[in-house]
Amino acid sequence: METSEAQVVAAAEARAAALAAGDAVALEAWLHPQFRWTSHVGDSFDRDGYLASNTGGSLKWAAQTLADIEVTVVGDAAVLRCVVSDRVDAGQGPEEFRMPMTQTWIRDGDEWRCLAGHAGPRMTVAG
After folding, report:
1. Are 64 and 86 in contact (CB under 8 A)?
2. DSSP string covering the chain
3. What are phi and psi of 46, to 5 degrees?
4. Where does residue 18 fall: left (phi above 0), alpha (psi -120 to 50 degrees), or beta otherwise?
5. Which of 32, 56, 62, 78 could cross-link with 73 by S-S, CB 3.0 to 4.6 Å?
6. Burial class (CB in 10 A: 0-12, 13-18, 19+), 72
7. How far apart are CA 107 and CA 29, in angstroms?
8. pTM of the model as a whole
9. Pick from 47, 40, 31: nearest CA to 106
10. pLDDT tens column, 17-41
11. CB distance 102 to 72 below 8 Å
C-alpha cells in the first residue's frame, strides 16, 4: 500500500502537470473548494481566481517540476515543501523561475486536495 507521503507527492505532481498543461478541469479537481494561494509577488487568489490566472489569461505554462520534496503528514493533513521550477511565458517570451514552495494538503475521502500554497521568493542562479 502506498504511504500517505507518497500519495501527497503524486497528487502534487499531478496538480503541477495539470497546471503546466493549462487544463483547468484537471487542475480544479486537485484544489479544495476553499483553496487559497499566495504568489511569489504577494498576490492572493481563491480557487476561481487561481484557475483564471493560470489557465485563462495571458500566462502560458510550459512546465512545473518539483525537487527536494519533503512531506510531513499528520492525520488527514500534510505539508509539502520543495523547490519548484516553473517555465512560463507571460507575454515577454519564455522564462524559468526557481523558488521555494509550500503546499498544505488535506485528505478528502480517498483523495488529497490542495488547500493552500505559497511560492517564493524567486531564487537567483549563481553565474
Report:
1. yes
2. ---HHHHHHHHHHHHHHHHHHT-HHHHHHHEEEEEEEE-TTS-EEEHHHHHHHHHTSS-EEEEEEEEEEEEEEETTEEEEEEEEEEEEESSSSEEEEEEEEEEEEEEETTEEEEEEEEE-PPPPPP-
3. -90, -175
4. alpha
5. 78
6. exposed
7. 13
8. 0.93
9. 31
10. 999 999 999 999 999 999 999 999 9
11. no
Question: How far is Cα 19 from Cα 42, in angstroms, rounded to an integer?
Answer: 19
Amino acid occupying residue 89: D
**Grid cell at residue 75:** 492525520
Short-list 104, 66, 61, CA closest to 83: 66
Residue 108 C-alpha cell reads as 478528502
The three cell numbers of residue 64 are: 512545473
- Other CB atoms within 10 Å distance of the CB of residue 125: 7
User: How many angstroms separate the CA atoms of 60 and 90, rounded?
Assistant: 6
Which residue type is seen at 80?
Answer: L
